[in-house]
Amino acid sequence: MLRRLFRTLRRWLVAPDGMSTSATMADPAPVVTIDGPSGAGKGTVSQLVAARLGWHLLDSGALYRLVGLAAWQRGVALDSPQDLADLVADIDIRFAGGAGGEERVELDGVNVADRIRTEHCGELASKVAAIPEVRAALVAKQHAFREPPGLVADGRDMGTVIFPDAPLKIFLTASARERARRRHKQLKQKGIDGTFAALYEDIRRRDERDRQRGVAPLAPAPDAMLLDTTSMSIDEVVETVVQLARPMGGRTE
Ligand code: DC
């Protein structure tokens, strides 16, 4: 793991001719990708890392949840790829707030931040995410988040498909049992129902579907750093990622 870390840092700091690679006008904004299965802590970690670095945040899972919700609201069949792709082109999505402030996720002008976090929307998201036409229609929307001073991109295929040139790629994991425990606690805090057993089953089923789908299956990029968070605190994970991102120019205080 250490060797991979040094390789990542060296690639960022030193050009092949030994010259420093300090950013030029033509360089795209730096990206840290944070991929992994549901409940590994990506959402919280990504939000906190983005806040610490002073960078933008892309919650790509929220995009799939929004598409699932929009399809359900408008009665678009989940087995109709072209209608779903047209839907993606038609909906208006806006993100605002986050870390500290109230999170707003707007679908056609309506704040659905809480609504998209329900298990129902998670299920719909997992289904639409398995459709290649939906994934293709969302690529440009995701690239648009890459703006100076930098981006923290949270998802399943951020390091493999959407930002394969990202200088720092993290793959967060945790045991399925621990992830179900975290999700259960999170839902309880929000006053949303759900038994541990049902959540555990749900997570296992969704993992299976995300790993086995033909398009952009859930897997770490070959150059990603694996971070098993089963027995790490959120603060420890955030600190680790922030320190790794430090050479990329983000604010670290
Ligand atoms: O991270 P999440 O639980 O909000 O994601 C919801 C669903 O969307 C989940 O089934 C995985 C899928 N997803 C995906 O396929 N690709 C992404 N980049 C992000 C999420």
Broad shape: globular
Spatial strand sequence of the major β-sheet: 2-6-1-7-8
The helix-strand sequence is HEHEHHEEEHHEHEHHEH
Average residue pLDDT: 86
Ends: how far apart? 25 Å
Q: Structural class per helix/strand content?
A: alpha/beta
How many distinct helices?
A: 10
Radius of gyration: 18 Å
Main pleated-sheet profile = 5 strands, parallel
Ligand species:
2'-deoxycytidine-5'-monophosphate
State the CATH architecture.
Answer: 3-Layer(aba) Sandwich
Within the CATH hierarchy, at the fold level, what is the topology?
Answer: Rossmann fold
The number of distinct β-strands equals 8
Low-pLDDT runs: 5-24
Beta-strand proportion: 5-15%
Specify the helix fraction band.
40-55%
Q: So what's the CATH class? A: Alpha Beta
List keywords for this structure.
binds 2'-deoxycytidine-5'-monophosphate, Rossmann fold, 253 residues, 8 strands, three-stranded antiparallel β-sheet, alpha/beta, five-stranded parallel β-sheet
